[in-house]
Write a structure and sequence with these properties.
Largest sheet: 5 strands, mixed, barrel
CATH class: Mainly Beta
Radius of gyration: 15 Å
CATH topology: OB fold (Dihydrolipoamide Acetyltransferase, E2P)
Number of helices: 4
Number of domains: 1
Number of strands: 7
Structural class: alpha+beta
Shape: globular
Helix content: 10-25%
Keywords: Signal
Length: 160
């Protein structure tokens, strides 16, 4: 079987989307706190494969978060440990202080579900990053606890 440029990613994205929906149904105890309605439940591979489908949408996305120099949500822990950036999306929490950032939260180095708005990268096409996730909150998969929550409006909300 042959695959196009992103064919393997597309096949993996379809499989992982199905698996993600099943997992998320079991891991949604936090849903009552959400004040924002989300337009899509997706995964890192889908965001990398077809970013334009998610631009300017409020989404929920699962992955392994690593906050180090550049915050990123990876498709898996293995990709995160090896820092394979082609299997990661950029994450922006636009915190005012380092201590209040997602990187310094219990989310760092964990499997999480992030909620936020996916936006175009500042210079799409120049780097691997075609988009960034401006997050509103993060939930730990291991126990369903919220490990980070936005306390001030994001720059997107302030622009409205």
């Amino acid at each position: 079987m042959t695959f196009g440029k992103l064919g393997k990613r597309s096949a993996l994205a379809t499989f992982s989307s199905s698996l993600l929906l099943i997992m998320s149904a079991a891991l949604m105890p936090y849903a009552a706190y959400a004040q924002k309605s989300y337009q899509a439940l997706t995964n890192v591979i889908s965001l990398l494969d077809s970013p334009e489908q998610y631009f300017d949408k409020a989404i929920l996305v699962d992955g392994y978060f690593v906050g180090f120099h550049h915050d990123a949500l990876y498709f898996s822990k293995d990709h995160a440990e090896l820092r394979i950036s082609s299997y990661a999306i950029n994450v922006l929490d636009d915190s005012d202080t380092e201590e209040g950032s997602l990187s310094f939260s219990p989310c760092n180095g964990e499997w999480v579900q992030l909620s936020g708005t996916f936006i175009k990268a500042q210079q799409p096409g120049i780097s691997y990053a075609q988009g960034r996730l401006v997050i509103d909150s993060a939930m730990l998969h291991k126990n369903g606890d919220i490990c980070w929550q936005r306390t001030t409006p994001s720059f997107l909300e302030r622009q409205k």
